Amino acid sequence: MVDEDRLDDAERLVAVDVSGLLRSAASAGAQVRSVAAAAAEAGLDRLTGERPRALVLITRPGAAAAAAPLLAALLGPGCPLPVVATESVPSWLGALDVVLAHTTDPGDRELATGVDRAVRRGAHVVLTAPADGPVAAAAAGRSVLLTPRIDVPPALVLPRALAAGLLLCDALGLLRVDLEALAGELDREAERAHPTQESFVNPAKSLALRMAGRTPLLWGTDPVATAVATHAAGALAAHTGVVAHAAGWREAAALPALRTAAARSSAEGDVFRDPFLDAPGPAEVRAMLLGVLLDPAAVDGRRAATEALPGADVVSADEELVVRPEDPAAASCAAAVLALRLDFAALYLGLGSGALGGGGRVGHTAG
Predict the structure, then answer these.
(1) Which domains are seen in the chain, by residue range?
(2) Please, is 196 exposed, middle or buried when counting C-beta atoms within 10 Å of its C-beta (0-12, 13-18, 19+)?
(3) Would the pTM count as exceeding 0.90?
């Protein structure tokens, strides 16, 4: 279990974080800026004005795979070209297509083979990957290769992968992007989530405390938020060993038993329950309604979800953003900030419970 005293003991929290995971998560803004610099040097702007037949998003294993569904959701149904997310380069790929791929594994042979096939067929390829190994060799000289400039663990590379995708979509005229604004928003979120910030003002610690000891139900109230929820479920698995349910709100509402369990739970829970002495019940869940978009349909969806589950937590980054809601880049900023907040929450939950770190729980001296 995790309690407020443990998460607010910043000195011990940092001491337990022997791998520097909190510091790596705080580099999200720097990751975005490094991708922008790498893209400028690699000549990504040569794709400006291209009108491809399809945009193919390659989803290899790891946290970066979450960038593909998130990017597809940001493009939305109004995207003027087909967006295909797939684990490997499709057989129909040709010279009229654009491929976007991310990996943290330089020895990913399947991806290396797919990249080689894509460039031989004349497709434009944009790849974020380590500089050495079969993947980079397959792309060398024949594609836009963006190599990492900031070393972070594989589970925390979503900002890098998302930034590359946003830059590509901007070059293709599919999305308007302001990466400096995005990096600034991520920097501010990292400040809010700093370990010295106490839980009552730290949104990531607050989320961690609300999820502690329960099964999180991460339900998106719009398509972009649902993609963020999927990423958050992966972050919880990676950093805490907690299995979370991630889905769209309406998809989740079609699961009667789970919806009943969510409706019975409340944000406050049982005030008489001792989290250290009482075992959690089978239906002890925490329903969290994630929201990103602010268009009328998304606002209606968020309202319907909160009316159906009045005790659920509503989690968004709306109020903290400096970027104005009407800015075309607002949705990508809100999604990235919310994903980072959930990354930090998973880290705090893992460090506070002893699932991560150098042994012992935060607030206790390891024997």
Answers:
(1) 4-21+196-353 (3.40.50.10490), 27-181 (3.40.50.10490)
(2) exposed
(3) yes
